[in-house]
Amino acid sequence: MAEPQKPKLVRFSGSKSEINITAWLRLFEEVTSEAAAVARRPQTIISLLDNDALNWYARDIAGNNMQWAAIRAAMIARFENVLSPLVQAQRCYLQRDENIAIYFNKKMELLRKTPLTAKDMTDMLTEGVPSQYKCNLVSARLTTPEAWFETALQLEVTLKKNYFSTNKHKPSYGKPKPSAFMAASKDYKKSKFKKNSNTKPPSPCNICKRNGKTEWHWHRDCPQKQSGYNSANSASSRQSGNDVSGQS
After folding, report:
1. What's 188-245 look like in SS3?
2. Where exactly does CATH 1.10.1200 map onto the chain?
3. For 142-161, what is the mean pLDDT?
4. With CB atoms 3.0 to 4.6 Å apart as the test, which of 2, 15, 62, 66 could cross-link to 70 if both were Cys?
5. Bridge-partner residues for 12, per DSSP?
6. What pLDDT does residue 58 have?
7. CATH architecture of 85-166
């Protein structure tokens, strides 16, 4: 009969590792629990370290003939989070990309390492959620983390339903299509032009004034505009003809 395959343990990389050093060492000791493996733990662990952890082990542990208990204590002192679990729990909040279950499990892992009572843990769970959760949780007068979790899950479902229901009936204020926008702009310009055409100008027409008349209309609407231009051209032609005659 074939022997059961030994479980594989993920490498520990140091300060940036996703797994806690104490939890990782507990797993390491589990997979090296046989008598022969226990004696070789200081050597076996080298093949399961990486990055910062491997550099630290080579610099501070290797060659010092340390017993496993001393190596274990040194690793925890070096790679355990410097902040106490209580401080970490106080800084743990429900993030936008998390749900209640993820937040609860993450924070309770820290709170279980503290001497807080069940009521104090429950209050700290409430402190880490947004106000729409907090008001309902405080009024529920919860005293255990388990009761808090059940109530928070129900609130999560209710708040999501309310959010989607509100946004479903919210009117859309999208931009108009380019063609419709351009058409509206053209209509606006036309109406604006008509309005300005019917408005009295601030001064009499300069073209009419040069012809001895005082007319109150815009220069662009002056009936003398074209005739004045033709008269000016005729006068210029006559003047040019006289100059030529004089020279001859």
Report:
1. HHHHHHHHHHCCCCCCCCHHHHHCCCCCCCCHHHCCHHHHHHHHHHHHHHHHHHHHHH
2. 85-166
3. 94
4. 66
5. 49
6. 93
7. Orthogonal Bundle (1.10)
